[in-house]
Amino acid sequence: MSVEDCNRWIELSDQAAAGGSLSDKDQTWLSQHAEVCRDCGAEKQFYATLGNALGRPEMLVVPSQTVMPSKPRVSVRKPLLMGLALAAGLALAVGGPMVWRRSPPTTSLPPPVTAQVLFASGDARLGPAPAEAGQKIPQREHLSTGAGLACMGMAGSIEVCLGAASEATFSLSDSNQILVYLEKGTLMARLDHQPAGRKFLVRTAGAEVQAVGTRFSVRLESDGNTRVRLHEGKLAARAASRVSTDLVGPVQASIAQDIRVAPMSPADVGEDKPLGDLVGLTRAQAGASVFLSSIPTGADVLLDNVPIGRTPVSMLLAKAAHVHLSAPDHEPVSDWIEVRGPSRIDRTFTLSALPSPPEIAEAPLQARPLAAHISPGQLLAKAQALRARGQYKACAHIYHRLWSEFPGSEEAKVSMVSLGELELVQRNNPGSALAAFNSYLRLGGALEREARFGKIRALRALDRHDEAKVETARFLSDYPTSIQASMLRQQSHVQ
Predict the structure, then answer these.
(1) Is residue 297 part of a domain?
(2) Is a pLDDT exceeding 60 seen at residue 282?
């Protein structure tokens, strides 16, 4: 840009700041020049930010040396801006915004934004206290999830859910601008079309997203970049460098100094699905306040087959729902939560510990038969005969005898794989089956493939799907051409 153009921009902007009128042509040129001139644009942004800091000094953003104007600026606005800077600084020093005396408004202000906790699980916290469904959210409050999850409802038309290990601050003091500042982790937002003049913003340290009527996620990556995934609707995205773009879903963008837009893959959609299901599940902002706990605590909870974290759980429910709780080495439990209007429902579920097969020492031990005329082979044959006759409980008892009386024998090792299949298929007891398969795998042997295949099926039956996926991937890598691998691919839709 030429010096003459920059001097003209200074003169016109000074005139506007002093209250002078500009022609439409001058106003258009003033705006266009600030967009293409780095120095003038940076100065405009700094002045605007400083002016906004009077009302909300905590949002003051001072440009770094790399974006401060490189040309000396001498203008009639300097005394005014010095005063603005002093006022903003004083407001920060006393811990709150300056209060300015002004004439009463001629029109009534819009009602304040109301917000409440819709759902919380695990160790989610609202401010310094544990988060609970139904809690009202102050005009400015901090939410952290730890190992849990949490969802907020705002203005009757906006839901925001935070994933695990996430932190955000909600700013609701401005009725025309609802702001969520994401400090760590991931959030998923879903909102209806907002009233005219109201903005919904999500900010990070390096980006800002504005949405009206949409569903999207925002995540702070480990490298400091902001990742946005727009599943439906429209967004306006802006980087700290003032680069901006409009997004139309489905699409994703990585925001740093620039904005890189890319299509969303099925894997991207799948990664957002747990929070997406949760934000759709918690849209009811009235109903019964439900509090779920378990013995032992920390049980995984499914609500209508949607994972909602671990106990303790609190949520607002408008209608009946099915819950399923599970924990490692415990029998899962399921039940219906009946909702009959506004009320408080407290439920505690006790999960019974599963019996485990006797452990065997790492080094083979000498056989210690209780009866001299009974051999490991005879016990195994007896167990097989009982199984053929459908006497599964008695059969399982013989398998356990083999482990306790002949722990170093091959028959005892083989019996654990047979016991696992018996518990999984005939007795519908996947917890005991998993313990049997693990007992065999600790020692290893010729039936390792069969034991690993059984372990995957037991994990799936226990709804421990993440562990099952890991074991499946390893199995397919180690036994790619086996019949079990073909069955796993069909069941998992793996090509």
Answers:
(1) yes
(2) yes
pLDDT at 285 over 50: yes
Q: For residue 212, what is the domain's CATH number?
A: 2.60.120.1440
Mean pLDDT, the chain, rounded, equals 79
Tell me the pLDDT tens digit for each residue of 158-210.
Answer: 999 999 999 999 998 888 889 999 999 999 999 988 888 888 999 999 999 99
State the angle between helix axes of 448-461 and 465-478 in degrees (0 to 180), rounded to the nearest 10.
160
pLDDT value at position 150?
A: 93
The structure's pTM equals 0.53
Range 253-273 burial, b when 16+ CB lie within 10 A, else e: bbbbeebeeeebeeebeebbe
State the pLDDT at residue 284: 61
Residues 382 and 452 in one domain: yes
CATH of the domain at 320: 2.60.40.1120
Q: How far apart are CA 219 and CA 229, in angstroms?
A: 9
Do 79 and 206 lie in a common domain?
A: no
Q: Whole-angstrom Cα distance, residue 407 to residue 363?
A: 10
- CATH number for 388: 1.25.40.10
Q: Two tokens at 244?
A: 């901006």
pLDDT at 89 over 80: no
Instruction: Count the neighbouring beta carbons within 10 Å of the beta carbon of residue 16.
Output: 15
| Domain assignment present for 370 | no
Domain that residue 439 falls in: 376-492
